[in-house]
Amino acid sequence: MEQCGGAGHSFEIAKRLSKSGLLIGIDRDNEALNAAKERLKAFNNVKYVHDNHDNIKQIINELGINNVDGILLDLGVSSYQIDEKTRGFTYMQDGPLDMRMDKTQKLTAEYIVNNYKEEELSKIIFEYGEEKFSRRIAKNICEYRKAEEIKTTNQLVEIIEKSIPKANREKKGHPAKRTFQAIRIEVNNEIKPLYDTIINSIETLNSKGRLCVITFHSLEDRAVKNAFKDAKGKCTCPPGLPYCVCGKKNLGEIITKKPILPSDEELKQNSRSRSAKLRVFEKI
Predict the structure, then answer these.
(1) SS3 content of the chain, % helix, strand, coil (to 5)
(2) Does 142 share its domain with 183?
(3) Is the domain of 59 the same as that of 119?
(4) What are phi and psi for residue 136, nearest 5 degrees?
(5) Cα gap 149→252, rounded to integer Å
(6) pLDDT digit string (tens) for 255-279?
(7) Are 123 and 171 within one domain?
(8) Closest by alpha carbon to 212, among 228, 196, 226?
(9) Residue 7's pLDDT is what?
(10) DSSP bridge pairs for 211
(11) Average confidence (pLDDT) over 72-76
(12) Enclosing domain of residue 6
């Protein structure tokens, strides 16, 4: 059986498992699950779970399953979420400041930009967006909200654009890209649990089972890379000790020494795959 962290990749997996096996599709977004159910309506070997992949062990246990043969984690925001302006993920169209992957949760982007302290906003935008003008953006957000609440993506884009010097605005894509990424990550808590999610996913695999992880920015990829290294269990004891005392446990092997990048053909079909990186780990 296989487990899929993002329901969008499920068609080919379900097709491959149609004669035997089970596909478990997990997604925080009910709309994504509904789309998967429609696409996979011809298959009866799929279970749909509205939950977070961070809870992988609990989900598998509640389904009465001990281990799985393969896991695909497709991290980050989906194309549907970006394109649907009412979800508030995009800086290209005006919409409500939402950014929730799971629309049942309470925390929204609107709450963050209107209630977080200036220092908190600056830290989030710098750490999660790698934005060097984070302090200026945070200060201007706080100044703006003194007069009126920030409720739309256009309002936030306007503040960001005025915060970044004109000469720097077009150097790395849209000036709002990094700040929107940072706030989205904070809304959905995408980075903090990721290391543990990777380790838990590996432990959930059967022997020779593989974990495949697709990331779309450096923060995700770094967390996955570090988790894979630790899961490989390289001894960190000082040389000369008669036996290992560091307790590093070897869970398996890293299959991809370097991440797999999209091919030219894939880039032609889907330009958004440009930043994608695929890493694979096989359990011992």
Answers:
(1) 45, 15, 35
(2) yes
(3) no
(4) -65, -40
(5) 51
(6) 999 999 999 999 888 888 889 999 9
(7) yes
(8) 228
(9) 47
(10) 71, 281
(11) 93
(12) 2-79+193-283
Residues 102-158: tens digit of each pLDDT? 999 999 999 999 999 999 999 999 999 999 999 999 999 999 999 999 999 999 999
Q: What is the mean pLDDT of residues 190-213?
A: 96
State the Cα–Cα distance between residues 136 and 140, nearest whole angstrom.
6
Q: How far apart are CA 134 and CA 186, in angstroms?
A: 15
On the question of pLDDT at 25 being above 90, the answer is yes
Burial, 93: exposed, middle or buried (Cβ in 10 Å; 0-12, 13-18, 19+)? Answer: middle
Does the pLDDT value for residue 2 go beyond 50?
Answer: no
Instruction: With beta carbons less than 8 A apart as the criterion, state whether 142 and 121 touch.
Output: yes
Contacts of 21 (CB under 8 A, 6+ apart): 1, 2, 45, 69
Q: How far apart are CA 255 and CA 74, in angstroms?
A: 18
Q: Which 3 state secondary structure label does DSSP give 207?
A: strand
User: Token pair for residue 17?
Assistant: 């498992």
Residues in a beta bridge with 212 = 72, 280
One-letter amino acid identity for 69?
D
How many Cβ atoms sit within 10 Å of the Cβ of residue 241?
10
pLDDT at 244: 77
Residue where one domain finishes, among candidates 145, 166, 188: 188
Q: Which residues pair with 260 in a beta bridge?
A: 278
